């Protein structure tokens, strides 16, 4: 029998964390406090914006705490006063000191969007797609002070399609993570023992945060396969880009077309009916499906050709 209204503290910040927060709330658990990062300025107007988790917590009328850091007496006292027995962490973004982890008598658990020990760190979905992994998934682990190094509680593995992008996979894995975490909570509160499996450190890889600089395409240095992976990995952010007529051009969707005629790297080739754009790479070409010029909306290849009177043989920089 599930204990009545176990008390949980939830720590999370981005959209990825919202399905887990919502799923726990809808189950027979009491979320006594939500930890999320402080409001940040964003956008062209630098408007102060709440995190998606804060917005959801307000909607659900859950108390919210937004410390800049957790390694101070104020944060420690605030958390200990809640008297919660479990901590759930989903992409929170702040290091949780061991002193705080030790508070929770039933443990602390994290939802991570990779098949740990692969892709520890900030951008696991981006890096899995960029690397061309055939599988992807989500892991529930116990929280440890070292980055994503806790014991594995449960995993869900799925195939990673070659045309999958980070936006689509983030949404899918966030839902899978929510399902897994609620299953784990059910086991905990029905006194079903959890099987904790230590990670193999020798297999660990790291998913560094994506920078805008690495999203810039240098056509003479990159193969078709790698550029398509990058396009998928960096969609929706930061977006693979180059320069067209002096303006930033983002490529949102493309396919490897190495069986087409040889094209110089960065050179545009238009089919006779002007429905497709091919861009040369060092080993062939990519076929562009969705593209966006600076200051304009996303367009199909044909729309872009017509709107900009694109000429066969122009070069991208």
* Uncertain regions spanning at least 5 consecutive residues: none
Order of helices and strands: EHEEEHEHEHEEHEEHEHEEEEEEH
**What is the 3D form?**
elongated
The largest sheet is: 7 strands, mixed
Helix/sheet category: alpha/beta
Strand arrangement in the largest pleated sheet: 5-2-1-6-7-9-10
Q: Could you name the CATH homologous superfamily of the largest domain?
A: Formyl transferase, N-terminal domain
Which CATH class of the largest domain applies here?
Alpha Beta
Per CATH, the architecture of the largest domain is 3-Layer(aba) Sandwich
Q: Helix count, per DSSP? A: 8
| Average pLDDT metric | 94
- CATH topology assignment of the largest domain: Rossmann fold
What this model shows, in words?
This protein folds into 2 domains: 7-207, Rossmann fold; 213-308, Formyl transferase, C-terminal domain (Methionyl-tRNA Fmet Formyltransferase, Chain A, domain 2, Roll), CATH 3.10.25.10. The relative contact order is 0.11. It has helices at 18-26, 52-59, 73-82, 98-101, 124-131, 166-189, 224-233, 301-308; strands at 7-12, 30-35, 40-42, 47-49, 64-65, 86-90, 108-112, 120-121, 135-142, 152-159, 206-207, 240-244, 247-256, 268-270, 277-281, 284-293, 299-300. The protein is an alpha/beta fold and 317 residues long. Helices cover 26% and strands 27% of the residues. The model has no long low-confidence stretch (mean pLDDT 94). The strands form 4 sheets. The protein has a 7-stranded mixed beta sheet, with helices on both faces. Strands 12, 13, 14, 15, 16 and 17 form a 6-stranded antiparallel beta sheet that branches. It has a two-stranded antiparallel sheet with strand order 3-4. The longest helix is centred in the middle third of the chain and has 24 residues, at 166-189.
């Amino acid at each position: 029998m599930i204990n009545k209204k176990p008390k949980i503290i939830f720590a999370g910040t981005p959209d990825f964390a919202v399905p887990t927060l919502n799923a726990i709330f809808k189950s027979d658990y009491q979320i006594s406090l939500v930890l999320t990062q402080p409001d940040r300025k964003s956008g062209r107007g630098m408007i102060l914006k709440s995190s998606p988790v804060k917005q959801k917590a307000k909607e659900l009328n859950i108390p919210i705490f937004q410390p800049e850091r957790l390694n101070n007496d104020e944060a420690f006292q605030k958390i200990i006063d809640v008297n919660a027995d479990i901590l759930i962490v989903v992409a929170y973004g702040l290091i949780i000191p061991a002193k705080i982890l030790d508070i929770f008598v039933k443990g602390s658990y994290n939802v991570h969007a990779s098949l740990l020990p692969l892709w520890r760190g900030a951008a696991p979905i981006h890096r899995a797609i960029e690397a061309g992994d055939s599988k992807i998934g989500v892991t529930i682990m116990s929280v440890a002070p070292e980055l994503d190094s806790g014991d594995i509680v449960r995993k869900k593995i799925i195939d990673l399609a070659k045309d999958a992008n980070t936006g689509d996979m983030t949404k899918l894995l966030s839902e899978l993570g929510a399902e897994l975490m609620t299953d784990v909570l059910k086991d905990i509160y029905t006194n079903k023992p959890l099987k904790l499996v230590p990670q193999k450190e020798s297999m660990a890889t790291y998913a560094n945060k994506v920078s805008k600089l690495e999203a810039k395409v240098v056509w003479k240095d990159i193969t078709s396969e790698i550029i398509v992976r990058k396009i998928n990995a960096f969609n929706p952010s930061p977006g693979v880009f180059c320069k067209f007529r002096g303006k930033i051009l983002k490529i949102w969707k493309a396919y490897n077309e190495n069986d087409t005629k040889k094209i110089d790297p960065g050179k545009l080739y238009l089919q006779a009916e002007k429905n497709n754009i091919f861009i040369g790479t060092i080993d062939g070409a990519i076929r562009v499906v969705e593209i966006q010029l600076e200051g304009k909306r996303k367009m199909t290849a044909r729309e872009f050709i017509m709107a900009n009177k694109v000429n066969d043989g122009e070069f991208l920089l």
